[in-house]
Amino acid sequence: MASSSACRAPTRRPRTMIPVAANDVAFSLHAVALTAFTLFQVFIYERGNQKISKVCISITAIVWTAAIVCLIVAWPKSNWLWLIDVFNSIQVGMTAIKYIPQAVMNFKRKSTIGWSIGNILLDLTGGVLNFGQMGVQSIDQHTLVNFYGNIGKTLLSLEVVFFDVLFIIQHYVLYPAKRDENVDGYPGLPVEVKHVAAA
């Protein structure tokens, strides 16, 4: 399976460009750097009673173990395309694990109070622009290899856009914040937040 996957690119798409642009690499490096910095903040700042859940620790351990095992399997025969496919699958799965709990929590609370929509709007903008880039490249190269040649990127973009749209609907349509500018002396804040701030 691994060897056939490794040969897939040259046999299916002879003389076509590898659908990975410089900005893809730059985005990955920037994402790793910012995530590492955020993780660093988790350890140095006061967290109160908040702890990383055992479920989160277990999932992270399983994913890292699987990634290391796949790297060991791929290394002897240089099956890097297969390894990339595996990593892409892991990334798609981890993204779902990241977003689903928030969507479920918003649904159960019937509210998005205390949660920022700003990152979602930026995320959606990036996802739409990403599809735009892939579309322009496909037109320029007269091929759809940018979509099916890097299926992990395509699936991840679709997944992110789907959840972003879901969160936007939850925030602005299903559970909009009720505002009362005269409550507790906190003008412009949602009622629930004012009560917490005044406590």
Automatic annotation (TrEMBL):
Tell me the superkingdom of the source. Answer: Eukaryota
Q: Where are the transmembrane segments?
A: 25-43, 55-74, 80-100, 112-131, 151-169
State the UniProt keywords alphabetically. Answer: Membrane, Repeat, Transmembrane, Transmembrane helix, Transport
Gene Ontology MF: a single term: L-cystine transmembrane transporter activity
Pfam entry (one): PQ-loop
> What GO cellular component entries does it have?
endomembrane system; vacuolar membrane
Kindly give the membrane topology term recorded for this protein.
Answer: Multi-pass membrane protein
Q: Please give the PANTHER family that the UniProt record associates with this protein.
A: CYSTINOSIN
Q: What is this protein called?
A: Cystinosin
